[in-house]
Predict the structure of ElaB/YqjD/DUF883 family membrane-anchored ribosome-binding protein.
Amino acid sequence: MAATKKAISNKEINEELKELQDKYNDLVELLKAKGSEKKDDIKSEMASKLEGLQNTTEEGLKEVYEKGTEGVEAVSGRIKQNPVASILVAFGVGYVLSKVSSNK
């Protein structure tokens, strides 16, 4: 009789182990699915932030380009208004720079 009880106990233990293994496998699958969803959410969020950053950078570059163009046009206009003075200023700056660099 003790042998039958032990056999039943082993059978019950094996059934419970099988049940635990099934639950474990279900849990692993659930975690994989949740991880995949989270990965997709993070990927989507990063793509959105990257697009926003790219737009901001493009706007900044356009603004810098426009201001640079305005500056070049302003200098060009002044040179056209006073060509002799512009040549003298350029010569003076070049002379000063050559003296400063030759002393080093």
Notes: The radius of gyration is 39 Å. The CA atoms of residues 97 and 103 lie 10 Å apart. The chain has a mean pLDDT of 86. Residues 2-81 form the longest helix (80 residues).
